[in-house]
Design brief:
The chain is an alpha+beta fold. The chain is built from ten helices and 25 strands.
């Protein structure tokens, strides 16, 4: 095998294959800076912006057969380390290098909320007729190609939208002119759309290499056949909060919202304590301790993803000396009843606000708790007195963030920290209702 190079050599490039087809094959892995079509030999040379991009592309296509317009093509590193032909420049590094074109290459930075074809169409249609949209994921982030009917419409959109945020404080648009002449769209679905041809199929199976770019399910493991769009949207947002991918073992496709929790300490547990623990992973609808099995409880979460996170992080956790069993219930929900505690409209539900931040802080129980909403004049001694009945406190730290007092309390064991959290979250301390969550920090 040739030495790694920024230049990729592609063979079996038939006359029906255009430059744009090859660009769509490699753009998910990084910027294609130059291209040379060797028509007489049915070959092409494409230079990536950096070595990492070319290595990533060849690693991917070593396991997936690249196919363009029904023809298998074959890739390897070129013996050339650089392409020098002036005519080959397809630079995308700056606005000065790319000529105005009716197709825009859009990169979304700081993508906290899910961006779909529908969202992009809503944003870009204000500046002209959007003919086609293709979205894909690459190492640098989420990208889209937007094709307008005319170049002037694209120029207007570029001038108005470049550098703007789709949502307040996030999802920033970084726009460049593409050098493609026409987008190839084969399916109308969440990832691509031809607005001039509404009769295209939706492609119910996972995308293959024939599409010209990798299956996004490789990055977002939750995008599986049969998952609803709403599920994918929530999962995308959570994945963004977790740094790009959901926690290992969390699929994001679970639809069951009600959990059965067993092996509870019947002397010490109640619905509010269970609420304090399970609300770390999502909003709570209802909780019911089973009267005929008092060491069992049903917990109904707001949606299936939140229920899955609770199962993932709490299975096997120790609470009041008992190892919790957390599984999905056979019941779809908890029927409202006098013995079912209703939390649907509770202001204590953590995911009513700061949703992304709350997902980011999801973790299994740790030895460290984080206390917020503290009084401004609070002392470490007052905090210690409030929680030390639940275990041996190793260390405490009082600090301020944006003018608000917060504290970290490190216990000797996870069990002690868990007991403090379920007992003291939403309790009153010097007139303030404090909030407690687990901290992922290892030490103070």
């Amino acid at each position: 095998m040739a030495e790694p190079s920024k230049v990729i050599h592609i063979r079996n490039v038939g006359h029906e294959i255009a430059e744009s087809d090859l660009l769509q094959l490699l753009q998910p892995f990084g910027v294609v800076s130059k291209i040379v079509m060797l028509r007489a030999k049915n070959q092409a040379l494409l230079q990536m912006e950096d070595m990492h991009a070319s290595v990533s592309a060849l690693q991917y296509y070593s396991t997936v057969q690249p196919s363009v317009r029904g023809r298998n093509v074959y890739m390897q590193f070129s013996s050339h380390q650089e392409l020098t032909t002036d005519q080959s420049s397809h630079g995308r590094n700056s606005d000065q290098e790319s000529e105005p074109n009716r197709i825009l290459l859009v990169t979304i930075h700081h993508m906290i909320y899910p961006i779909t074809v529908e969202v992009l169409h809503q944003v870009f249609k204000a500046y002209g007729f959007v003919e086609k949209i293709v979205t894909f994921q690459k190492s640098a982030g989420f990208q889209a190609l937007i094709q307008y009917h005319s170049r002037q419409e694209a120029v207007e959109a570029f001038g108005s939208l470049h550098g703007r945020n789709i949502y307040d404080g996030c999802c920033q648009l970084d726009i460049q002119y593409s050098n493609l002449s026409e987008l190839q769209v084969h399916y109308n679905n969440d990832r691509s759309r031809d607005f001039t041809n509404p009769s295209l199929p939706t492609e119910q199976r996972p995308r293959t290499s024939q599409q010209g770019y990798p299956d996004p399910a490789g990055l977002y493991a939750f995008q599986q056949p049969g998952a609803s769009y709403a599920q994918m949207g929530r999962a995308t947002m959570i994945a963004a909060a977790f740094g790009g991918t959901l926690p290992h073992g969390v699929t994001g496709t679970n639809e069951r919202c009600t959990l059965i929790v067993s092996n509870l300490n019947t002397d010490k547990i109640d619905e509010d304590k269970l609420f304090n623990l399970f609300s770390l992973y999502g909003n709570i609808v209802r909780i019911k301790i089973l009267r005929n099995k008092p060491d069992h409880a049903l917990v109904e979460m707001a949606d299936g993803l939140q229920a899955e996170l609770a199962v993932h992080y709490l299975k096997g956790a120790i609470l009041f000396g008992k190892k919790l069993e957390v599984n999905y219930s056979k019941y779809p929900n908890i029927t409202p009843a006098p013995d079912a505690h209703d939390y649907l409209n509770s202001s204590l539900n953590r995911f009513n606000s700061n949703v992304v931040k709350n997902y980011r802080h999801c973790c299994a129980p740790t030895k460290m708790i984080h206390i917020s909403a503290l009084p401004q004049e609070i002392t470490e001694d007052a905090i210690l007195n409030h929680v030390n009945e639940h275990g041996s406190v190793v260390n405490t730290k009082l600090f301020e963030v944006n003018g608000k007092r917060q504290a970290l309390v490190l216990f000797e064991t996870e069990e002690e920290a868990t007991e403090a959290l379920v007992s003291k979250h939403a309790s009153s301390l010097e007139g303030n209702t404090v909030r407690i969550s687990f901290s992922q920090m290892q030490s103070i």
